[in-house]
Design goal:
The structure holds two protein chains of two kinds. Chain A has a five-stranded parallel beta sheet. A five-stranded parallel beta sheet of chain A has the order 9-16-10-11-12, covered by helices on one side. Chain A contains eleven helices and 25 strands. In chain A, helix 1 (10-22) packs parallel to helix 7 (291-305). Chain A has three domains: 3-106 and 238-305, 3-Layer(bba) Sandwich (FAD/NAD(P)-binding domain), CATH 3.50.50.60; 120-235, FAD/NAD(P)-binding domain (3-Layer(bba) Sandwich), CATH 3.50.50.60; 320-443, Enolase-like, domain 1. By secondary structure, chain A is α/β, with parallel strands linked by helices. The mean pLDDT of chain A is 93. The radius of gyration of chain A is 24 Å and the shape is globular. Chain B has helices spanning 10-13, 16-37, 44-68, 89-107, 113-118, 120-127, 133-155, 160-186, 207-213, 217-241, 244-247, 252-259, 272-301, 310-333, 335-338, 342-346, 349-360, 378-381, 389-393, 409-413, and strands at residues 365-368, 419-422. The longest helix of chain B has 30 residues, at 272-301. Chain B is built from 20 helices and two strands. Chain B has a two-stranded antiparallel ribbon. The chains are: A alpha/beta, B mainly alpha. The interface between A and B is large, with 76 and 69 residues.
Chain lengths: 444, 451
């Protein structure tokens, strides 16, 4: 059985690895972007000089050869599903028995005047990083458009090279379509502490050209003109499915797949950012462009292809990010606006650490954790959510969830005290499983 | 591999004030160099004081410019673009200078006479004895640990584990490897280092050492203390805490690596080939030191009848190759080229011994937080021991590796909070066993139980 995977990102590479782990079928993985699988998430660190280029590659080149995963650098230009063949740009025809589409995303580019100019760039591909790096010297200012996760990464990148950054954010505060108000404001303050010029409630209206076809300034919807030579567009990503349109594949925003990640065509699967799940499990979205869903889909599709049909089940939502120096983790459901049947317990130190636990008013079962500057264990939080554990039981055992490095000042007792004050309760935090517990005994 | 040719923006990464700070430190080093080479004619101790002052003051400016002016956080901007920390021309210059110094120290101490003279006053003050090459070395070593330790404390001021650990190595270096031996000398006692044991200090357990140490009760105590530390304390402490109790909290070699060596930690090789080499070398040296010591004692037992001078020939060879060339010249001299833990990773027999315990019988491991890893590779890059931490983290597998010294930097630099150093007994029996398959429903993943 010849397996062909298009795309060597986290989804495609994981599929290839798990197919090889469990079988001996010939595997060919094709990429237009890079010779080897690389960590897209690490691009920013190469620009900032934390990592060198070769650190982007999680596996040494011999890994692929040793595991007999054949790699091909090519662009697939034509799909012949009837004869189970694909054609590359160099004119080669490649036959397959199973085709896995893992073509990922591409940056969404809003239709604006000047969007096509030199100097207007997203941050997604290796080539984007190359472009931004080679056009960074002598910049008087960079403008970043789109107040999400990639936007803040791009802002941090420019900041690391002492390039002033103006950050155009559509929402009234940073990422407020996802984060509750308190967290959003805390991160906004942190961005200010790092001298990022954030313009809230502001949209990009046009990009103004200079005489050589580069950009010279942006125009906002407030009529302000900001001089800049480089504009980072980070207004989200869309599935990279242009090549499949009108090829017989069912496509909405992404390639439509059933719960087994199968498309409407026999032997053709789609995984990762480019796939749109027709009936997502509860609490999940049809398209989720995050790292671990790509990995999970890769594992799942490998099992299905090898004759163990496996339903794609990403489980309870979780995610994480870092905004300059503030780490962020979320487990379960945290809505930006508190729904009427949900109660929230929010503790914060005012500047860099916060814990939010949301729970149902009806039976007090917890639904989500939102954490800034505090690390919690995924397994523990997800289990509490999935078992519908009551808030007071969770608070009693909250220390077991803590995943902060040893000796870190613990916040759990403050969280419990806050709950008791708000509700007139007497919940007691059980002792910790860490060295801190030992030290506390010594203190007594 | 693709060549991204990310342009080198080094001028952008360091402000002129940072550069001024470094330049002032370099002037201090230059004065040391003058004392070393020329033995300058004006009063040595004054020159030395000025040198120490300039080195410390320059570092103070550098710390302010690089760290304390800014909000606390991971500050590795430009590490791979700076000449000193990315094997550029400055890296080579510093590497060659340190290598030269060690070469003089071990084999041509007569060239250090200017420096030795300069340290005389300090030596008289502390030890009531004239300075020698080793006192010069110890003083410079301790000075580097303290000043660069302070720099490290500022750099990681948001991480309490890093703070406490750094205070610990600085304390042990200053107290047990500098003042205490000096005080012992001033009291006409043997110069003893209570934080180094056989087989790292391979001379500590030889018949020759025994014959002079057994003459004083302190010396005899020290001899057995070393054996106790090796055979009893090390396995027990390593069982509870991993080898970090020693390598990144107590050891003097570790103290220099964690402070002065910190800017070079990312230079260690992460390849699988170097991991293989590491296992051959470090265990080979452990076997060598055991053999060499055993032969010395056997020779005494046989009253030199069979082995004759060969056992001490073996000893001398080991002493030259491992004790001087490897642990000194290569171990420290090559910091800016191969990273800060070359000796600890490829050579130290004490590390090999603890590594065996850490691998086979210890609670210590680095736990991984579910599926949060994004494979960015910061953990691997900043591992001074060259462990490819990411390879484990991205498949949800706890990290149990003989070489891990528990410095905790992987956990600090992780942008997703995925790694935690752990010695709880809760799930210690399962440590590192299996990768957590992501498709396993979370109900089947063991909840970490309280002790």
């Amino acid at each position: 059985m010849q397996i062909v995977i298009i795309g060597n990102g986290i989804a495609g590479s994981t599929a290839a690895r798990f197919l090889r782990k469990q079988s001996d079928h010939p595997i060919l993985m094709i990429s237009e972007e890079s010779d080897y699988f690389f960590s897209r998430t690490a691009l920013m660190y190469v620009y900032m000089g934390h990592l060198k280029e070769q650190d982007l590659f999680p596996y040494e080149p011999f890994f692929w050869e040793k595991n007999r995963i054949n790699l091909l650098r090519a662009k697939v230009v034509q799909f012949d599903y009837e004869n189970k063949k694909i054609h590359t740009d160099s004119g080669t025809a490649i036959g397959y028995d199973v085709l896995v589409l893992a073509t990922g995303s591409q940056p969404f580019r809003p239709a604006l005047k000047g969007i096509e100019l030199e100097g207007v760039r997203g941050l997604y591909h290796l080539q984007d990083l190359q472009y931004i790096a080679s056009n960074s010297s002598g910049l008087s200012r960079a403008v970043v458009v789109g107040g999400g996760l990639i936007g803040v990464e791009l802002a941090e990148m420019f900041h690391s090279r002492h390039i002033p950054v103006t950050f155009l954010i559509r929402e009234p505060s940073y990422w407020s379509n996802v984060l509750p108000r308190e967290e959003s404001l805390m991160i906004g303050q942190h961005l200010r502490d790092h001298s990022i010029d954030c313009r809230y409630n502001t949209n990009l209206k046009a990009i103004l050209p200079d005489e050589t076809g580069g950009c010279t300034a942006v125009l906002t919807d407030k009529g302000e003109q900001i001089a800049t030579e480089l504009v980072g567009i980070t207004t989200g990503v869309v599935p990279n499915v242009g090549a499949f349109r009108s090829s017989g594949l069912e496509i909405n925003k992404g390639i439509l797949v059933d719960e087994y990640l199968q498309t409407n065509l026999p032997g053709v699967y789609a995984i990762g950012d480019c796939a749109e799940v027709k009936k997502p499990s509860s609490g999940r979205k049809p398209i989720e462009a995050v790292w671990y869903t790509g990995r999970k889909m890769g594992e799942t599709v490998a099992a299905t292809i090898l004759g163990k049909p496996t339903v794609y089940d990403p489980g309870t939502w979780f995610n994480s990010a870092k905004f300059f120096d503030l780490e962020y983790q979320v487990y379960g459901t945290i809505d930006p606006q508190l729904p009427p049947d949900i109660e929230t317990l929010y503790w914060s130190d005012g500047s860099s650490r916060s814990v939010r636990i949301n729970y149902r008013t009806s039976d007090t079962s917890v639904v989500g954790f939102n954490l800034i500057g505090v690390r919690y264990r995924q397994e523990v939080c997800l289990r509490w959510i999935e078992q519908g554990c009551g808030i007071e039981k969770v608070l009693e055992e909250l220390s077991f969830a803590n995943f902060d490095p040893e000796f870190t000042t613990e916040v759990e007792s403050a969280v419990v005290t806050l709950y008791n004050q708000k509700n007139g309760k007497q919940v007691k935090l059980k002792s910790q499983r860490s060295l801190t517990a030992l030290l506390r005994i010594f203190k007594k | 591999m693709e060549n991204l040719s990310i342009s080198n923006p080094s001028p952008l990464f360091m402000s002129w004030r940072s550069k001024a700070g470094l330049a002032i430190s370099v002037v201090g080093v230059f004065i040391l160099g003058l004392l070393w080479i020329a033995g300058v004619s004006f009063e040595h101790w004054k020159a030395l004081s000025i040198s120490f002052f300039l080195m410390a003051y320059g570092m103070r400016i550098f710390i302010r410019e690089e760290y304390s002016r800014f909000p606390s956080g991971i500050r590795n901007n430009g590490v791979w673009f700076r000449s000193l920390t990315a094997r550029g021309i400055w890296g080579w210059i510093v590497g060659i200078l340190i290598t030269l110094f060690y070469t003089c120290l071990y084999w041509f101490p007569e060239y250090l006479s200017g420096l030795i003279q300069a340290f005389n006053r300090l030596s008289q003050l502390l030890r009531k004895a004239p300075a020698d090459a080793w006192f010069v070395y110890g003083s410079l070593y301790t000075f580097a640990v303290v000043t660069m330790g302070i720099k490290f404390l500022y750099k990681y001021r948001h991480q309490r584990y890093q703070q406490i650990r750094t205070w610990s190595v600085v304390f042990f270096q200053l107290g047990f490897s500098y003042f205490l031996p000096g005080i012992l000398v001033s009291l006409q006692q043997p110069e003893l280092y209570f934080t180094y044991f056989w087989p790292l200090s391979y001379a500590n357990a030889t018949p020759a050492t025994w014959s002079w140490q057994s003459q004083t009760s302190l010396g005899a105590f020290f001899f057995f203390f070393g054996l106790f530390m090796f055979f009893v304390a090390t396995p027990v402490l390593t069982w509870f805490f991993g080898k970090r109790w020693y390598c990144s909290w107590v050891c003097g070699c570790g103290a220099l690596a964690e402070t002065a060596g910190d800017p070079f930690r990312h230079l260690s090789s992460k390849s699988i080939a170097s991991w293989k080499l590491e296992r051959w070398m470090i265990h080979g040296i452990l076997v060598m030191v055991v053999l060499v010591t055993f032969l010395l004692w056997l020779n005494v037992y046989l009253e030199r009848a069979v082995l004759k001078e060969y056992s001490s020939l073996f000893y001398k060879t080991y002493s030259f190759l491992v004790g001087a060339v490897f642990s000194g010249v290569v171990g420290v001299g090559f910091y800016p080229l191969l990273g800060s833990r070359v000796w600890c990773r490829f050579g130290c027999p004490m590390a090999a011994w603890m590594g065996i315990w850490q691998r086979k019988a210890s609670r210590f491991r680095i736990t991984v937080n579910g599926g949060q890893c994004i494979s960015c590779g910061n953990c691997s890059s900043y591992c001074e021991m060259g462990i490819d931490v990411r390879a484990y983290a991205q498949r949800g597998q706890d990290i149990v590796r003989a070489s891990c010294v528990g410095c905790g930097i992987c956990s600090a630099v992780c942008p997703r909070g995925v790694l935690r150093l752990e010695n709880a007994s809760g799930d210690a029996a399962r440590r590192g066993k299996d990768a957590r398959l992501i498709q396993v429903p979370s109900s089947e993943v063991g909840l970490l139980k309280p002790d």
